[in-house]
């Protein structure tokens, strides 16, 4: 009986998602934000069912698998220098900010770390899509943006494994940190070495013409890796991510994407809905000003960081600012981090609700800002060129001004 | 010839940048989805002045046009053949052609004329290196390769009236 009702609830949720998503695409909004809002509305009508919860878990697994799959180790290796330097800049400027905010809010170390990750990680899904929609893929700043996104995703994936590892271990001290780090890196190394050395064999094994068997084999690889990660006390998401990395170098990559994509789209949508349903906006509406505050602060640090990176790599000011403005949207990874561990909900600022509001703000306004940043950068640069400040003399001397 | 710079756009695709002689830049992005985008940047500008989005199929067609495959300048048959030693010729098989509905081996093309059929283009499908038992059907386009003598020989032996495409090496 419970199952029957759950199925009905799932159907209603999906239909609601369809209509909301349909409207969202009409106004060019990101689906992530809309799905969360649908969840927030639906919580008034029915609770999260076992089925929704189960699909949401699969949603994380499939999402991370797709990340891994679309993440080519080859391009990571060949661009490692660029990725590392741009990424580390962005990291230094943005990660400590969240840590500081967490400390000010009275979070413990683990929650502060999680908040740091939530505030730091840009949504690669929203940003990559916006870049394509806004026809910016050939712009000079785009490569830097994408490199930063790779660094962030890679960092957060490792970070997530580590945090979950620490929490599962039970205590935080030098020995446990060392032990968990060792375990995490061993798990990562195992998959990376496997991907690099046994490419040929993997290629042969998964080269199955029969579509049904192919899907089952790929699913078993994904779920097994996720399960193995969970078994050794890391997060399932990481196992799936590494399974994706493992298969990303194979010839069947596109076919895998094709068959897994529908599962991923379905389950990820439910994941966002379930997350939306868990945001208790009636009792914690007072968190909204706090979320706005964090949003403004972290947006500034992202734009500033992007501007600095642009300067370092001799991009024009305009491109540098566009780089910064493109890093504002937060999304999927922030939500995964917020739900990574079970937390005490009686704190004055429950992390999960705060993240919900924060992600909504930054996903919605972030993509609007990305689109509308042009007039702002124009205005900003023109203004600075008019009032030539003595400090900025060197940087405002644009070549075309002297002509 | 200008240099083409190639770079990765992780999670989007690959980017090719061409510095043109006019100092403008042409950037072609090939998306993982197969879509292509062609951007034009004027000198020193970091925003494109034009963007063209193409599907995979459109891009291929346009590529063929740019490569000169569709354009048939009116050149005398004779002149066409006096190119270099090895020539490729695109031949459309008309329903009344001597080639139509015959197996390659049964026509004995290689022995009789010296040319070799490298490819059969049949509607949407392309058959490279067709086996000897493959049929040549009406409406096929076949690509043959040989030296000038052999091609001429082929054209006269099989009474070809209208090779479709321009020749190339």
Describe the overall structure.
The complex is a heterodimer of chains A (403) and B (169). Chain A is mostly helical. In chain A, 78% of the residues lie in helices and 0% in strands. Chain B has 2 domains: 4-66, no CATH class; 77-157, Regulator of K+ conductance, C-terminal domain (Alpha-Beta Plaits, 2-Layer Sandwich), CATH 3.30.70. Chain B is 21% helix and 36% strand. Chain B has helices spanning 56-66, 77-81, 104-107, 109-113, 148-157, and strands spanning 4-9, 13-19, 25-31, 36-41, 50-54, 86-92, 102-103, 116-122, 125-128, 135-136, 141-147. Chain B is elongated. Chain B starts with a strand and ends in a 12-residue tail after the last helix. Mean pLDDT of chain B is 79; it is low at 165-169. The chains are: A mainly alpha (403), B alpha+beta (169). The interface between A and B is medium-sized, with 28 and 22 residues.
CATH architecture of the largest domain in chain B: 2-Layer Sandwich
Helix content of chain B: 10-25%
Structural class by sheet pairing and helices of chain B: alpha+beta
CATH top level of the largest domain in chain B is Alpha Beta
Indicate the proportion of strand residues of chain A.
under 5%
Number of helices of chain A: 18
Which stretches of chain A are low in confidence, meaning pLDDT under 50 for 5 or more residues running? 390-403
Assign the CATH architecture of chain A. Answer: Up-down Bundle
- Helix/strand order of chain B: EEEEEHHEEHHEEEEH
Helix/sheet category of chain A: mainly alpha
Oligomer: heterodimer
**Biggest chain contact:** A-B, 28 and 22 residues
Work out the helicity level of chain A: over 70%
Query: What gap, in angstroms, lies between the N and C termini of chain B?
Result: 19 Å
Query: Count of DSSP helices of chain B?
Result: 5
Radius of gyration of chain A from CA coordinates:
22 Å
User: Major beta sheet of chain B, specifics?
Assistant: 5 strands, antiparallel
CA gyration radius of chain B, whole angstroms:
21 Å
CATH topology group of the largest domain in chain B: Alpha-Beta Plaits
């Amino acid at each position: 009986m419970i199952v029957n009702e759950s199925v009905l609830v799932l159907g209603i949720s999906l239909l609601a998602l369809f209509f909301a998503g349909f409207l969202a695409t009409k106004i060019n909004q990101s689906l992530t934000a809309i799905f969360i809002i649908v969840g927030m509305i639906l919580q008034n009508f029915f609770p999260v069912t076992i089925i929704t919860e189960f699909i949401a878990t699969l949603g994380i697994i499939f999402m991370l698998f797709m990340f891994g799959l679309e993440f080519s180790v080859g391009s990571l290796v060949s661009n490692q220098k660029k990725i590392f330097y741009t990424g580390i800049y962005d990291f230094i400027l943005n990660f400590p900010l969240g840590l500081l905010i967490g400390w000010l809010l009275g979070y413990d170390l683990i929650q502060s770390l999680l908040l740091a990750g939530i505030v730091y990680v840009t949504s690669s899904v929203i940003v990559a899509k916006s870049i394509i929609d806004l026809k910016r893929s050939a712009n000079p700043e785009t490569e830097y943006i994408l490199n930063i996104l790779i660094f962030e995703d890679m960092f957060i994936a490792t970070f997530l494994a580590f945090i979950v590892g620490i929490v599962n271990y039970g205590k935080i001290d030098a020995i446990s940190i060392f032990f968990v780090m060792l375990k995490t890196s061993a798990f990562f190394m195992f998959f990376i070495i496997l991907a690099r050395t046994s490419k040929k064999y993997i290629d042969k094994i998964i080269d199955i013409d029969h579509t049904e068997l192919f899907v089952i084999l790929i699913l078993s690889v994904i779920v097994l890796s996720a399960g193995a990660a969970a078994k050794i006390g890391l997060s399932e998401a990481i196992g799936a991510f590494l399974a994706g990395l493992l298969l990303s170098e194979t010839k069947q990559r596109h076919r895998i994407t094709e068959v897994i994509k529908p599962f991923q789209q379905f389950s990820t949508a439910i994941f966002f809905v379930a997350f939306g349903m868990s945001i208790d906006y009636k009792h914690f509406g007072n968190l909204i000003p706090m979320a706005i505050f964090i949003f403004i602060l972290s947006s500034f640090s992202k734009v500033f960081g992007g501007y600095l990176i642009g300067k370092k790599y001799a991009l024009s000011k305009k491109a540098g600012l566009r780089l910064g403005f493109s890093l504002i949207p937060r999304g999927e990874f922030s939500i995964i981090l917020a739900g990574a561990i079970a937390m005490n909900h009686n704190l004055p600022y429950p992390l999960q609700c705060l993240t919900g509001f924060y992600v909504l703000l930054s996903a919605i306004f972030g993509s609007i800002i990305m689109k509308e940043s042009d007039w702002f950068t124009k205005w900003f640069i023109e203004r600075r060129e008019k009032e030539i400040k003595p400090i900025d003399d060197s940087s405002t001397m644009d070549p075309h001004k002297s002509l | 010839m200008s240099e083409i710079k190639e770079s990765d756009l992780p999670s989007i695709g690959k980017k090719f940048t061409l510095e043109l002689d006019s100092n403008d830049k042409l950037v072609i992005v090939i998306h993982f989805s197969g879509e292509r985008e062609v951007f034009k940047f004027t000198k020193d500008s970091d925003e494109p002045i034009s963007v063209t989005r193409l599907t995979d199929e459109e891009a291929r067609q346009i590529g063929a046009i740019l490569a000169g495959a569709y354009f048939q300048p009116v050149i005398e048959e004779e002149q066409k053949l006096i190119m270099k030693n090895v020539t490729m010729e695109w031949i459309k098989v008309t329903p009344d052609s001597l080639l139509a509905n015959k197996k390659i081996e049964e026509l004995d093309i290689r022995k009789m004329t010296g040319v070799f059929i490298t490819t059969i283009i049949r509607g949407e499908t392309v058959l490279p290196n067709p086996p000897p038992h493959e049929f040549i059907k009406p409406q096929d386009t076949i690509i043959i390769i040989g030296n000038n003598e052999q091609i001429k020989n082929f054209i006269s032996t099989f009474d070809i009236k209208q090779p479709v495409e321009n020749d190339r090496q």
